[in-house]
Every structure is written in structure tokens, then in C-alpha cells.
Automatic annotation (TrEMBL):
InterPro entries: 4Fe4S_Fe-S-bd (IPR017896), 4Fe4S_Fe_S_CS (IPR017900), cNMP-bd_dom (IPR000595), cNMP-bd_dom_sf (IPR018490), RmlC-like_jellyroll (IPR014710), RnfB_subfamily (IPR050294). Residues 459-487, 528-557 form the 4Fe-4S ferredoxin-type domain. This is Cyclic nucleotide-binding protein. It holds the Pfam family Fer4_11.
């Protein structure tokens, strides 16, 4: 409709700008609650002057925190859940379970594989009812309820069966008032590492990530969190790095003491994704935070703890992407190793590439000196780049090094990945490599994958358009096994002959899980697939809003006869989160790929380069 410009005026409309705390985390928090919290540790020791006037300490406690009261045996935090908050035990006790619990005890149901005859029968005789669910798939199969305290707005809570038996068996660790837990999962977007259950009646303060960041303004609180991570979690994270797997304990402790933690970009990268993906590759690279700069002297070995990094190199007046890094990858290893193992003595080599944060990047930095003295003597030659390994042979070996190299090492099976420094090389390390990046040829495909954040996908759906005849058998097959409601459409962005279809990719960094109030959205341990436990899904839509790719939908569910489920209190339809489940119950695997008559579809891991490179090579 055309706008009549004669009717336009210069008069403006005044509106109130939305404020951060328009929606507090706990609308029931009172002045008395805030005053009581200020008297408890650690808040009684915080300095109110350390906080800005616009975001005072009392405001953080009132708006970024929620008080919870748990009864005996209620689950406070559940292993495997992704969340954006931490818990502080204020009163009472809790038990951190050291034993991994069966999924069914945590409200999760393992997918049962159907037999081939039943799968064929379902394909030939579909139910005809969209989003059909059995009653046990709609209501919880565990004791799930809301406590009396703020029952109207508190998410349902799990009651763990035989909790006392686990405690008596010594399979738990007692937590006391004043202890903080869950901050690592909140700050570094990782799954919770253990289940925590209330021992008797307990009171806990849940602190969402935004408030946790502000509380770190107090030096004492920040130091407490850093000390807790460095003491309890950093040694475990370093042990996960292949390069450090044979490090003696005393060396590891010195490395822990020297390691620096840093973060770049926004943790909530999905909020900026739709805007940045529209930029040109050059503009996108320019907008990303710089971690290390090409041509500068290397000072640290950089380890990616979470998020993604872009490795790029000067190409004329622009930057060209040569690789990307994910969790556990290293940056600067070749320059450091060559410098340290130089036969004429240590030298400082400039970085051959730059490293930038793609959305969010969390890193650990080990100084060069620490690497040379505490790590290099315990690294096997075939864990280093080839040039550095040759130089290491020429270095005089100490008695300790000779003994170490003569030891028989246990075999460790890890994937072979290419190096960021030489991504066109055909050489592969036959032992355990240091994972230093993921690269693709040609460069245009790499730029495309990073720009669209497809490197986040572990089960991306790709269609070879040179083979696809647009018959839509893939969509029909998906609909046949999902009650006539396909979980994807044959649409998506294209690069040359490849179409990246809009379907759940079961991401490495599943931001959809963050904020799920019941933990219904979770990663299946055996397969790594992101699944929905529908029996405890309350249909809030948080996951659908959080998915940066728009691959989750909310759907009203019906019983097998087509009768809609409704809420007995409000009479509103029961909705559940739906998305691609990789046809986990079928013996054939994903029906879309199995049904394609032209072998045009593949479900593939884009967090590493070999799967896609091998698939493309077989088609050329």
C-alpha cells in the first residue's frame, strides 16, 4: 500500500524503552527475601560499591535470582541438561551423585528400535492421524510435580526414587550451605556433569547467567569462582587434550597454574546470527573479535574450550578463511613447536594465520615457556607437526625423555584431522594427532559453511542437486514415519551443487537446550542426537525460539484415534516440541536418506572436514 506523504508529519511518538529488569526471574521475590539473602554467605561479604548504580547488588538479587525450596529426594540439577543458571545452596544440604543414573530415572525414555516387519507395516499402513501420541508419551512416566512454594510458576520437579539407597551406598558427595554448583555449565555452555538431589528440605538460590556475570564484578566473588574452576575443573579439561595425555601430575599442576582463561564474542551468539549471516564473508570476518593476529609473535598455545574459531590468512587486502576450530582444537602449535625445537636454540616465529571468534569462543592459553619446559618433554613426536617432529629428533634427549619414549603407551582411538597450517597436505598422522583445525577445499565452501554456522551441525542434511530429481520421496518417507507430518521441507540455502536442507542438525553447541525448564530437550549419550522427551515437555516453546536455524516447531498432539489432548485445567490443546529425530526408532536410520532413489541425500558431520570431503570426492 502506498503511503500518502502529505499525511506524514514530523511529530514523534514517545514510548518507554524496555528495561533489563522488566521481567524479573522470580516475580515473588520480596524486600524481606533480598534482606535475608544479604545476610547469607557469600553475599554478606560482597562490596555493594563494586556494582554500578544502574545494576546494584540488591537489584541483581531481586531480579536475576530465584529462590527454590526442595523437599527430600527432589532433583535440583540433572546430569546432561544444558542450562543458563547456577545454584547456590543457602540452607539445608544436597547430594551430588557420583554414579551415572539410568535415563528412565531422570525422566528420559530410551528410543526402542522397531523390527523390520513392523517398520514396513507402519510404512504401508500409516495411522492417518497427525502427531499421534500414546498416553504414556504425553504424561510423565516419573513422579513429576510442582512443589507448593510458588507452584503456579515453578517448573515441575522430579522426585528421584531410591535416593536414600544411593546415599547409603556412598555414591554421592555432600554439599553444604554456601556451596555454588552449576556455574561451569552456565558460564561455558556445557551440559551439567552430575545430578544434584536435595537431602532433606533445602533452600537454594538459582542465579541466571546475566546475574552471575554481574556478581563477578566483586573481586572476591570472581576470585572464588575462578579458584573453584581452576581447582576442580581445569585439570580435567586439560587432561582431555590429546597433547597432554601423558603429562605427569606435577607438570600438570604447573600447567594449571600458568594457564589463562579468556572469552571472546557473545555467549548468546544465536541472537546475532540472523544479522551476521547476511553479511558478505569479508564483512563477517571483519566483525568477528580477534583472538590472535597473523604476523605477531606467538606467546601462547591456544586451546579451544567451547565455541568456534575462524583461522584466516591475508589474501591481498582481504582475509581468506583456511580452517575453523572447535572444542579441543589447538592454535599456534606449529609455530611454537618449531621455535622450541630449533637446533640452533629457541626462536620466536610469527603466527602464519589469524584467529577470530565465530559468534562465541572460549579459550585456554598456555604460555610458550610453560609448553617448552612442562609439556614438550612428554609429547610423542608423531603428535607434533612433521617439521617440528624432525627437529625434535635432532635435540639431545634427557634421561627422563629417553625412558618416557621407551614406554609402551596404551592405544587411544581418536579421529584423524588435518592441520590448520597445511590444509592441502595429503599426509595423515598415524598415531594420535593434535587436532589443530578443520578445513575444506575449495575455500568458497569453507566460507559458506562458517558464514551460515553449519559447522555447528553434527547431522546436517545435504542434498546433491546434480542427482536430485525433485521427486520429494525423501519428504514423503519422513511423513510416512511421522504420522503424516514431515519434520523437514526440501528447502534450504545452496552452494554450487549442494543444498543444505533446513532440518535439525543435532548441533555441537545446541543453544536450543538452554532455558528448557524441565530438561525435556537433551542429548542422547549413545548417539549424540538431540532428542525431545515428550512426556515431560510442557510445550512452552523456549527451544523453538532459541534454535537459530528455525528447525524446531510446536505442534498440538492427538491420541491414536485422532482425538486432541487438552489440558484439564485450561482446556487448551497440549503442544509438544517436534523436530527431526533421525528416525532413531527405525532399523534403517533416517528415512529421508534411505528412501532417496538417486543417493542424493546424506546426513553428515560438518564439525570435521573428512566426512564431507570424502563424500564429495566419491562423487567427482
Amino acid at each position: 500500500m502506498a503511503i500518502d506523504r502529505d499525511m506524514m508529519t514530523d511529530e514523534s511518538i514517545a514510548v518507554r524503552r524496555p528495561r533489563r529488569w522488566d521481567e524479573p526471574m522470580d516475580p515473588h521475590m520480596t524486600d524481606a527475601d533480598v534482606g535475608w539473602l544479604r545476610e547469607q554467605s557469600p553475599f554478606s561479604n560482597l562490596d555493594p560499591a563494586a556494582f554500578p548504580k544502574s545494576i546494584p547488588l540488591d537489584g541483581i538479587l531481586r531480579n536475576d535470582c530465584r529462590l527454590h525450596r526442595f523437599a527430600h529426594g527432589e532433583v535440583i540439577a540433572r546430569e546432561g541438561d544444558y542450562a543458563n543458571s547456577a545454584f547456590l545452596l543457602v540452607d539445608g544440604h544436597a547430594e551430588l551423585l557420583t554414579r551415572e543414573l539410568p535415563p528412565e530415572l531422570l525422566g528420559r525414555r530410551e528410543t526402542e528400535k522397531v523390527s523390520w516387519p513392523k517398520a514396513v507395516w507402519q510404512l504401508l499402513r500409516p495411522s492417518g492421524v497427525r502427531e499421534a501420541r500414546r498416553p504414556e508419551e504425553v504424561v510423565p512416566n516419573v513422579d513429576l510435580h510442582a512443589s507448593a512454594h510458588h507452584a503456579d510458576d515453578r517448573p515441575p520437579v522430579l522426585q528421584l526414587q531410591d535416593f536414600d539407597g544411593l546415599v547409603r551406598a556412598g555414591q554421592s558427595v555432600r554439599l553444604s550451605p554456601g556451596e555454588l554448583f552449576g556455574e561451569v555449565a552456565a558460564m561455558y555452555r556445557s551440559p551439567r556433569s552430575a545430578t544434584v538431589v536435595s537431602q532433606g528440605d533445602s533452600t537454594l538460590l538459582e542465579i541466571r547467567l546475566q546475574g552471575l556475570k554481574m556478581l563477578r564484578r566483586d573481586p572476591a566473588f570472581s576470585q572464588r569462582m575462578d579458584d573453584h574452576y581452576r581447582e576442580n575443573w581445569l585439570p580435567l579439561h586439560l587432561r582431555e587434550i590429546p597433547l597432554l595425555r601423558f603429562l605427569p601430575e606435577q607438570n600438570l599442576q604447573r600447567v594449571v597454574a600458568a594457564t589463562i582463561q579468556r572469552s571472546f564474542g557473545r555467549l548468546e551468539w544465536n541472537a546475532d546470527y540472523k544479522k551476521t549471516r547476511k553479511l558478505s564473508p569479508a564483512e563477517q570476518i571483519e566483525s568477528e573479535p580477534v583472538v590472535a593476529t597473523e604476523g605477531h609473535q606467538v606467546t601462547d598455545l591456544i586451546i579451544v574450550r567451547s565455541g568456534f574459531g575462524r583461522v584466516c590468512q591475508s589474501y591481498g587486502v582481504a582475509q581468506r578463511t583456511t580452517a575453523y576450530l572447535g572444542k579441543g582444537h589447538l592454535f599456534g602449535l606449529e609455530e611454537i613447536a618449531l621455535g622450541v625445537t630449533n637446533e640452533d636454540g629457541p626462536i620466536n616465529l610469527p603466527l602464519q594465520h589469524s584467529l577470530r571468534a565465530v559468534g562465541f569462543l572460549d579459550t585456554l592459553h598456555i604460555p610458550v615457556e610453560c609448553f617448552a619446559t612442562d609439556i614438550l618433554p612428554h609429547v610423542r613426536r608423531n603428535e607434533l607437526p612433521a617439521s617440528a617432529a624432525k627437529a625434535l629428533l635432532r635435540m639431545p634427549a634427557s634421561e627422563e625423555a629417553r625412558e618416557r619414549r621407551s614406554e609402551k603407551r596404551p592405544k587411544v582411538d581418536l579421529p584423524i584431522v588435518s592441520t590448520a597450517m597445511n590444509h592441502t597436505s595429503e599426509e595423515t598422522w598415524q598415531d594420535l594427532p593434535s587436532p589443530t583445525g578443520t578445513s575444506f577445499e575449495p575455500t568458497g565452501l569453507l566460507e559458506f559453511i562458517v558464514q551460515n554456522r553449519f559447522n555447528n551441525g553434527r547431522e546436517a542434511m545435504i542434498i546433491d542437486l546434480h542427482r536430485c530429481t525433485r521427486c520429494d520421496d525423501c519428504v514423503k518417507a519422513c511423513a510416512s514415519v511421522h504420522d503424516g507430518n514431515p519434520k523437514f521441507a526440501r528447502v534450504g540455502v545452496n552452494h554450487d551443487r549442494l543444498q543444505f536442507v533446513q532440518a535439525c542438525m543435532h548441533c555441537t553447541d545446541p543453544v536450543c537446550m538452554i532455558g528448557c525448564p524441565t530438561g525435556a530437550l537433551h542429548r542422547e549419550e549413545s548417539t549424540g542426537h538431540v532428542r525431545v522427551s515428550e512426556s515431560i515437555c510442557i510445550g512452552c516453546g523456549t527451544c523453538a525460539k532459541g534454535c537459530p536455524y528455525g528447525n524446531i516447531e510446536m505442534a498440538a498432539v492427538n491420541d491414536p484415534k485422532g482425538r486432541p489432548y487438552t489440558d484439564e485445567a485450561s482446556n487448551r490443546p497440549i503442544t509438544k516440541a517436534t523436530k527431526c529425530d533421525m528416525c532413531s526408532g527405525l532399523p534403517s536410520g533416517p528415512a529421508c536418506a534411505a528412501a532417496c532413489p538417486h543417493d542424493a541425500i546424506v546426513r553428515i558431520d560438518l564439525s570435521e572436514s573428512p566426512p564431507l570431503e570424502d563424500w564429495l570426492r566419491r562423487r567427482t
